[in-house]
Amino acid sequence: MPECWDGLSGLTSTLPDTVLSHLFSQEELVNNTELVQSYRQQIGNVVNQANLQLFWNMYNSRRDLDINRPGTVPNAKTLRCPVMLVVGDNAPAEDGVVECNSKLDPTTTTFLKMADSGGLPQVTQPGKLTEAFKYFLQGMGYMPSASMTRLARSRTASLTSASSVDGSRPQACTHSESSEGLGQVNHTMEVSC
Description:
alpha/beta; four-stranded mixed beta sheet; 8 helices
């Protein structure tokens, strides 16, 4: 298997292990062995290793988008469309997603941090992510008749009460809106089991 050079520590590891440590948190690598082993097997046996190495090299050589929050820098470049950023709690990419969120227009950006989902919320919590995405689209005026289950009920309850709907455990989503400046609203959702 190809080995990767870790420029910080000088250690080498196999490319599949390097990719796995990018996809999963350390906690997941230790505790979610069945899912991690499934991915290790797929990455090591199914994926063309030469192509994986090329992909990894391109990923590591990507550059910053050079965007800034409107109003913080004269003529700031930013995304003008609605954006939904999703990251699992304790995901390896959490800091990068939070930093990206800080550079986007808070009036058009929704930040979703999913509890109990780690580095791959689309794999570990697909139902919750799908429902959050439906809600995001509904907020833009699409899918007005989409049935929203736990997420919608939880959002309504969290905006009116600090306690959960059933009183026994946290609900699927907490949606908070806070002003960071005049007329700016920051959309943040945290999804938990």
